[in-house]
Write a structure and sequence with these properties.
It contains 11 helices and no strands. The protein has about 325 residues and is mostly helical. It has a single domain, classed as MetI-like (MetI-like fold), CATH 1.10.3720.10. The N terminus is likely disordered. Its main location: membrane. Belongs to the binding-protein-dependent transport system permease family.
Amino acid sequence: MTEPADSPHRVAVASAAGEATAEVVQSAPTKKNEKPRGLWGDAWLDLRRRPLFIIASAIILVVLFVAAFPGLFTSVDPNVQDLYKARDLPSADAWFGYDNLGRDLWSRAIYGTRASIVVGLLATLLTVLLGSVVGLLAGYYGGWVDNVLSRFSEIFLGLPFVLGAIVILTTFNAGVAVPSGARVITQVVLSIAVLSWPMAMRIMRSAAISAKQQDYVKAARALGASAPRIILRHMLPNCLAPVMVYSTIALGAFIGAEATLSFLGIGLRFPVVSWGLMIADSRNYIQGAPHLLLFPAGFLVITVLAFVMLGDAVRDALDPKQK
């Protein structure tokens, strides 16, 4: 037999339950000013707890500071030669010793940071910009636009990097005896970007195809929003995460690519100072003077590793499956 809804027993039970609920609510901590976090807010909160991210960020900040203000770390001209000191070992006067032409290796390693970082940053920026634009257009419009742009990107994707760079840089420098520093840096940046943008395009295209199926894009299209507005205001912010991860890892890879091209004699050249050029200058003296190779290679490895570590940490923070 059930009790009436307004029976004294049921009223007492409901009153007691209400009081208990009120006590629980009052005892629970409340955050009145806390705002809901989005993808980037959650990622930043997660990144601050990762030792890998903190270590990589500290190394990168130091490297960027050295690249911006090399004069604070050495007062020696990196191109001053003293053949009497050629291949001298590290000492109190020269922490890293001298190279085969008697140039201070510490000074050259410090000033070489700028060229390597500038090439990596500019090549990454140009690669991501070009690949993102093409990828967004291919992913949003689909159909024949997607087919044409995808097949066009595959032409560059099929080119071997070193072979393509040799062809491009040799063509650029045909008939030029000694190209200027700014000119050769521009050539190396363009070569890396031209051969690398298809990967960024593929990543952005996949993200755009996924975003195009979401309800907010369909609603914007139903409300009469134009294609540029949908792409820039709705799709682009939601497609940036995978491209940001790629760009962080690619920056380190492009710094290594610059060193590879310089080592082969088709990248940066004198009077530019870079880690790749220092490694190239040491190749004939590795057995007799290994410090010529170890110090610039150490700078290069640490920097590339820091960017790769940063990219791994950002990828894990932005991946919902890692939560």
